[in-house]
Amino acid sequence: MDLTQGTVEQKNRRAKKMMLWFGIGSLIMGFAGWTSAYIVSSKRADWISDLELPQAFLWSTATIILSSITYWLAKGAIKKGNLKQTTTLLLVTFGLGIFFVVLQFVGFSQMLENGYYFTGPTSNIKMSYVFLIAAVHIVHVVAGLISLLVVLVQQLRAKYSSENHLGLELGATFWHFLDFLWVYLILFMYFVK
């Protein structure tokens, strides 16, 4: 298919999707760099290999997976023209996204209660990586929440329909990426001792 062909609207849709995928690609490279540094640093003598991740991180993982499901259902609802269900599912997704962030901070609090700090004389390089990777992911989830808020406002303003829902589709793609990224990160930190 020739990407230069099509209507202005078709070209615009392709351009927006391509920009999203370029952004996702750059995020993948950034997190690949941090997880690679984590692996290299795991060979240090002061590396803690018996660290248990906080329980809140496991609950937040279930929460973000559930939020991805509700976003997926919202996308399905808009394709069927069910605007009320779409709005409800987007609100639930937003609430779950907020709850994910709260649980992440609870996880940070649990790590601090166990004597693990990001920096300072009692810190450890592994904990610094765990804090850094989780915190940077939270920043991106906040960006995803802002995107979701824009989608919600557009939905409430009746800007989407079963034929025209590109913004919702792009927001869902980014949200699903954040979900898969967190699942990868939590599994990575759990299994790479």
Short description:
The protein has 193 residues and is mainly α. It is built from 5 helices and no strands.
SSE order and pairing:
Layout: H1 8-41, H2 55-79, H3 83-113, H4 125-156, H5 166-191
Helix pairs in contact: 1-4, 1-5, 2-3, 2-5, 3-4, 4-5
Explain what the structure shows.
With 193 residues, the chain is mostly helical. The protein has five helices and no strands. It has helices at residues 8-41, 55-79, 83-113, 125-156, 166-191. It starts with 7 loop residues before the first helix and ends with a helix. The model has no long low-confidence stretch (mean pLDDT 91).
Largest sheet: none
Distance between the termini: 46 Å
Quick one: how many beta strands?
A: 0
What is the 3D form? elongated
Strand content: under 5%
Helix fraction bin: over 70%
Radius of gyration: 19 Å
Key descriptive features of the protein:
193 residues, 5 helices
